C-alpha cells in the first residue's frame, strides 16, 4: 500500500458571495443619459456636415448648415442637461460626464467652424 497514498480532497465550503457585489442606491440619471444621446447626435451631425461639405469641394449646402445649426442647439441643451444631472445626489456619474464632454466638444467645434467662416482664424 505504500505505492498508493491516500489522496485528500479539500472541499471548500460554499460561502456567501455578498463580498463580491456592491449594493448601492445609486442610479443612472435620465438627464445624463439624454445629455449623452444629444452629444452623440451633435458630434455625428457635425462630422457628417463637414465630411459632405468636403466632398462638395468645400461648398456647404443649406442642408449641411441647417444640420450644423441643429447640432449646435442640441449641444447647448445637452450641456445644460449634463450639468443639471451632474449636480444630482446619489447617481452614477458616467453618463453626465460623458454627456458634458461630448456636448462641449461639439459646441467648441461649432465655434471653431464659425471663427473659420468669418476669417478670424
TrEMBL record:
State the UniProt keywords alphabetically: Membrane, Transmembrane, Transmembrane helix
Protein name per UniProt: Uncharacterized protein
Q: Where are the membrane-spanning stretches?
A: 32-52, 64-85, 97-120
Q: Does the keyword Transmembrane helix apply?
A: yes
Species annotation: Butyrivibrio hungatei
**InterPro entries attached here?**
DUF6142
Amino acid at each position: 500500500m505504500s505505492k498508493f497514498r491516500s489522496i485528500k480532497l479539500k472541499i471548500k465550503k460554499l460561502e456567501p458571495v455578498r463580498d463580491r457585489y456592491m449594493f448601492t442606491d445609486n442610479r443612472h440619471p435620465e438627464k445624463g443619459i439624454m445629455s449623452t444621446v444629444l452629444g452623440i447626435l451633435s458630434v455625428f451631425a457635425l462630422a457628417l456636415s463637414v465630411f459632405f461639405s468636403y466632398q462638395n469641394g468645400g461648398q456647404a449646402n443649406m442642408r449641411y448648415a441647417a444640420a450644423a445649426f441643429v447640432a449646435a442647439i442640441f449641444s447647448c441643451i445637452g450641456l445644460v442637461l449634463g450639468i443639471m444631472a451632474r449636480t444630482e445626489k446619489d447617481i452614477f456619474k458616467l453618463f453626465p460626464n460623458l454627456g458634458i464632454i461630448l456636448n462641449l466638444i461639439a459646441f467648441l467645434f461649432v465655434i471653431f467652424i464659425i471663427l473659420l467662416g468669418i476669417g478670424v482664424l
